[in-house]
Amino acid sequence: MSGIASSEQLESRELFADLLAQTFGPTEIVQLLSEIGLRLDDLALALNVHPRTIRAWLDDSDPRQADRQRDEIQALKAVVLFMLRRGILKPQELAYWLVEPNAKLDFRRPLAVLGDGDISETMSELIKAAAPFLKAEPERPSFPQRGAAVGAVTHDRPGQDALAAQEPGSNAGEEAEAALGAEDPSSVAESPRGA
């Protein structure tokens, strides 16, 4: 089987991730992963098969057997895609990371961890081990909870507590006064309560 990825795709995280994401056949996925530098032994370890089985898939001598390992192949594809899209490593660097013993994994290889269990059990372990090579998730804005107090009530007039809670130097107080229709708050006579 000839190479699927171009040299440009093999050098670019984005281009290789796009190519891998658009590849659905189990044999083609395995071929792409071998092109970034994962050896037959590495792929066999992650997929729980013998290296000769991987060779048979790549030689097209038994493509149906790759279909039997579809779930494991898709799990490996998901891990590689996650690492390419969230990570900083190029495809070939990622291949090296996947096969190197990792202290955060008790010196196991990430591919061996993947081969030990299903993806839902092992993905969190792999993400923790890969943390130095992952971009931080974008911060999500936090909003105050509905009904949470923004500032203490300091005035008897409705709306004045909104004015008191403003940061110094902001024009939000002027906007709040305009919305209330009040002129200078100090010039407004207070009306007696209950009137």
Question: What Rg is obtained from the alpha carbons, in whole angstroms?
Answer: 30 Å
User: What is the H/E order?
Assistant: HHHHHHHHHHHH
Number of strands: 0
Largest sheet: none
Number of helix segments? 12
Q: Please indicate the percent range of residues in DSSP E strands (runs of 2 or more).
A: under 5%
Coarse morphology: globular
Helix content: 40-55%
Report the mean per-residue pLDDT as an integer: 76
Helical/strand content category = mainly alpha
How far apart the termini lie comes to: 91 Å
Q: Are there runs of 5+ residues with pLDDT below 50, and where?
A: 152-195
Task: Please explain how this structure is put together.
With 195 residues, the chain is an all-alpha fold. Helix content is 54%, strand content 0%. Helix 9 (110-116) packs antiparallel against helix 10. It starts with 6 loop residues before the first helix and ends in a 15-residue tail after the last helix.
Which helices and strands appear, and what pairs or packs with what?
Elements: H1 7-11, H2 13-21, H3 26-35, H4 40-47, H5 51-58, H6 63-68, H7 70-86, H8 91-99, H9 110-116, H10 119-130, H11 160-164, H12 172-180
Helix pairs in contact: 2-7, 3-7, 4-5, 4-9, 9-10
Tags for this model:
195 residues, mainly alpha, 12 helices, globular, disordered C terminus
Short description:
This protein is 54% helix and 0% strand. It is mostly helical and 195 residues long.
